[in-house]
Design goal:
The chain is of the alpha/beta class and 310 residues long. Helix content is 28%, strand content 27%. Strand 10, helix 6 and strand 11 form a beta-alpha-beta unit. One of its GO terms (molecular function) is hydrolase activity.
Length: 310
């Protein structure tokens, strides 16, 4: 069975809404909804196919598109390889040029459907914010960390990893209770860097696995957000095989704690991220101003410890 390669666009407004299109009458899967895009022709790069398809389908001119994920899916009659791009800037208001219905939708509150099966996991990924903060109470002190967490929540932080290996079980529980109480009014999701049972018992949204824990994992926990730390293609492939929700890939740049350690660099990061079927956060030496560069290299966003807390 041949593989159909396609470029797919996530046209994203600043408020997070994305554009969906209904497949018109007469096409396979008519009446189903999908993200705009189309086949990559012979001799085309995925990006050039994206630009052409959006011009033909929607009458828009792409100004800024960043690579995001590569997903493969087997339909009964064909295999598809979907090159997803996030498109944040374009000229002209999208319009129906091929008889398709269009609708701006928020990924977590769709009012249209059904979605094509290959596109369903994309909606969950789109609900992840661009910034993933990692706690640093060990260095800042708990009081200072909690003060800075409050400030970050007020400024929009919505995804946090609690990673405090120095704490006893009782100390972790006390800090977790304070963090979860603070984040709840903001609907921020908090993952525990630790074991699944502790994360469930303390009421975390999910769990973040170390690379070693990831490689020992044979099945992902259900009904919780699952992420992992990866450093190479082998770890990334295992995270993909488990269908985790996202990964962090590191170290991209030198860090204060390991200034002389080998790093991926942006090129090495991009080589791995461009082949990923999961959202990938860049970690290691990150600062908020690196977000745009991370997007250009295929990242979903950036993960920060010191950079998250000023």
């Amino acid at each position: 069975m041949s593989v159909v390669r396609a470029a797919v666009a996530i046209l994203q407004r600043p408020d997070g809404q994305v554009l969906l299109a209904e497949r018109p009458v007469g096409k396979p899967w008519e009446g189903w909804w999908e993200f705009p895009g189309g086949k990559i022709e012979a001799g085309e790069t995925p990006f050039h196919a994206l630009v052409r398809e959006l011009r033909e389908e929607l009458g828009v001119e792409v100004e800024k598109a960043t690579p995001w994920m590569l997903r493969r899916f087997d339909y009964p009659d064909r295999k598809v390889e979907l090159h997803f791009f996030i498109v944040r800037d374009w000229q002209h208001e999208p319009r129906s040029c091929e008889g398709q219905q269009l609708s701006w939708q928020h990924p977590t509150a769709l009012t249209v459907g059904p979605m094509l099966p290959a596109n369903e996991p994309i909606l969950a990924a789109l609900s992840l914010p661009s910034i993933y903060a990692i706690s640093n109470a060990a260095e800042l002190g708990e009081k200072a960390f909690l003060n800075r967490l409050q400030s970050a929540l007020d400024q929009g932080l919505r995804l946090l990893q609690l990673r405090e290996k120095h704490l006893s079980a009782d100390g972790l529980q006390r800090l977790a209770e304070q963090v979860l109480k603070m984040t709840q009014p903001y609907q921020a999701r908090v993952l525990l860097n630790g074991d699944v049972d502790t994360a469930r018992a303390l009421g975390f949204s999910g769990v973040h696995f170390s690379a070693a824990s990831l490689m020992a994992l044979s099945e992902r926990p259900q009904q919780m957000l699952c992420a992992a730390s990866c450093h190479d293609a082998r770890e990334l492939a295992h995270a993909q095989s488990l269908a985790l929700d996202f990964v962090v890939l590191s170290p991209v740049l030198p860090t204060l704690s390991h200034p002389d350690a080998p790093v991926l660099g942006w090129d090495g990061f991009a080589d791995l991220a461009h082949e990923s079927s999961l959202p990938v956060y860049a970690l290691g030496g990150m600062q908020p101003e690196y977000l745009e560069q991370a997007w250009q290299q295929g990242a979903h966003g950036i993960a920060m410890m010191r950079g998250a807390w000023g």
